[in-house]
Amino acid sequence: MDDPLGYVVDKMAATPVEKLLATTEFLEELHLASVPGALSSQSFQHIKAFFSSDSTVGTMVRLLFDEPAILFTYKNAPTYFECARLYHLQNLMSNSPFAPSILDALLTEKSAGRDELVDQLSLFRPMAIMNAEALVRVCNALFDRTTVTTFVGLYRDERVELFRGILFQIGAECVKELALRFCDDLLCDPSDLTWEAVPYQLLQQIFPCTKLAFASFDIDSTSLEYKFPLMLYTCDFITDLIQENRPDTLGRYIVTQLTTHTTLAAALVDGVLVDLHMLPTALSCESYGMKILNSMLQLHHCGCISRHQTNQQDTAREIDCQGTLNALWSAFVARLPDFLHLLQIPPHRNFTLKHVQLLYLLYPVLRVSCIAVDEVLMQHRTFETLLALVDRFPNANILHTAVCRLFITCLEDCPVMFGQELQTRRSIHDPLRNSLLRESVLTTVIQGCGSQRVTCFKDIAMSFDELMMQSPPVPPELATRWNDFATTTLEDIRADWALQLPTPNGSSNHLNTQAGPSLEETNEGSSEAKKLLKRVDTGKPSELSGPTLSTPGVELSSSPTKSKELSQSPLQALYDSEEQALIHQFTALPGVVR
To answer: Which segments carry the region annotation Disordered (predicted)?
Structure first.
């Protein structure tokens, strides 16, 4: 018989693919038909034509979005046939002998499968993780046969809807990687208004619980369980776009719009402020929009403080930016007082994660080197507020670290931050630096160095001392007081740090509460270890083999000391008696070094 599976092929081709995938018999027959040489040439062409027909491919694409219905019954294991059907469906479309013809059907001029794909994605309905993984595998197989640009070009006016539908599904990490592939491969002109809805949608996804002035889709109907991964992976997605920064691509277009478009920039800043006032919520305890804002602020530098680094006592200091600030920075500077006000923590409130994010946000604020930004910091006495927070929360080590970094960035000429040396535009005549050289600030730092609980005042004092060595314009009595402190207390601190590492906050108390082993116990432990090593070196099977029920001299009621002497090492415990006998037999061979 030349074609033993011919009748199977005829039965398959006469049944709709949706019904075929609903039967276990089809999965077995499909497995047989996929074996090389199992079908005759005629049968292979017959079944290939069936699978690659326009209607069949359209049905397959629709089935990729059908969530598997896993049935749980009382006291019975769940059935996973629906999951197996989804797996075999994506395997049929991406990795079977019939996959090339199925994928080619998606690339024709008019394709029901391609229309079904954009229709399903345009519903903005979250996919299950298994469905998302299946869709991504099919898309990756498709893009191995053609480029993303070619495939998206087939959609013409619907290409934006296709991409927006994919963006909504990035709550699944695998789809996020697929969306990044689109952004890296698709070319986009900065003046192209076709894609202008995409940045607005990203802001909706990064602020899923905030009412924005615009709404590109109804996110309120999305479940809270999906809003969190959608927000999380949207944040990761935008961060990846910032880092890749490929010119003339859709990814660069998105980042450019968020930083230069006035409406988008204001929406991002306002959304972060709303987050900070609402946190913590049922969805999150930190602002993911704040992470995006922080990263995007670091993309731009002004540098106009360079005009204020000489002695200008006879001229009035300018307080407006003399450089250039993009739309995002302009919107942020206008709301910077609102951000700084959040650092004024009421007495009945505690320090939270959102305040840590605020401190991290001040790092690009200092690095932008803009006199208008520095003026806001000076008006609100921001650095005095930071010192007050350190003094108020002596056990908040993460707060202390962040505050130290801010003082180091502001006061030192070549600070080392995040593993690299940074060059600063500030000098001893810098207005922001000089605003810190006041008696109240230096007194707080000097008194803080005497604290046994808070060590970050010592780091801050080192940064102040580096600046004071350059003879900045300070009153003589204040300079004398600092010099007396630096030549006594600060020198002692340097000497202590040179001899030993500083003890982290709270570690000394922790060590005092846990008594360490005595000298006798340490010696006893060392002698036991030496005995154990000596037994291992001798290689005697009676000592290498662990105690068993038939080993004489071992009783279940034996004393702890007796069982301790007969216990085996962790390495010996890995082997049973038969394996240990083989080890002994091998080591007993002549020429083997024991």
So the answer is: 501-571
521 DSSP β-pair partners = none
Choose the final residue of a domain: 146, 181, 202: 146
**What number of other Cβ atoms are within 10 A of residue 492's Cβ?**
11
Spatial contact of 342 and 362, defined as CB atoms under 8 Å apart: no
How many CA atoms lie less than 13 Å away from 292 in the CB half-sphere? 34
Q: What is the DSSP string of 78-107?
A: EE-HHHHHHHHHHHHHHTSTTHHHHHHHTT
Whether residue 436 lies inside any domain: the answer is yes
Number of domains in the chain: 2
Q: Would you state the structure tokens that stand for residue 22, as one six-digit string?
A: 């609903």
Alpha carbon distance 44, 96 (integer Å):
12
pLDDT in tens, 408-442: 999 998 877 766 777 777 888 889 999 999 999 99
pLDDT digits (tens, 9 = 90+) for 568-580: 555 555 566 766 7
Quick one: CA torsion of 573, 574, 579, 583, rounded to 10 degrees? -80
Q: Which two tokens stand for residue 64?
A: 């990729």
For residue 62, give its domain range: 1-146
Extract the tokens encoding 256. Answer: 């450019």
Cβ contact 289:339 at 8 Å: no
- Yes or no: say if 547 and 566 are a contact pair by the CB < 8 Å rule: yes
In tens, the pLDDT along 348-359 reads 889 899 999 999
Q: How far is 415 from 432, CA to CA, in rounded Å?
A: 16
Residues for the chain: how many in total?
A: 594
User: Quick one: CA torsion of 420, 425, 430, 433, rounded to 10 degrees?
Assistant: -10
DSSP 561-577: HHHHHHPPPTTGGGS-H
Q: Which of 124, 146, 168 is the last residue of a domain?
A: 146
Q: Which helix or strand (DSSP H or E) is residue 274 part of? A: helix 262-278
Phi and psi angles of residue 113, each rounded to the nearest 5 degrees, phi first? -65, -40
Q: Lowest-pLDDT range, 227-231, 490-494, 538-542?
A: 538-542
**What's the CA gap between 408 and 176, in Å, rounded?**
37
Q: Specify if 118 maps to a domain.
A: yes
Q: Tell me if 71 is assigned to some domain.
A: yes
Rounded-to-integer distance, Cα 449 and Cα 354, Å: 27
Banded pLDDT at 561 (limits 50, 70, 90)? very low
What is the torsional sign of CA 439, 440, 441, 447?
positive
Does 315 map to a domain? yes
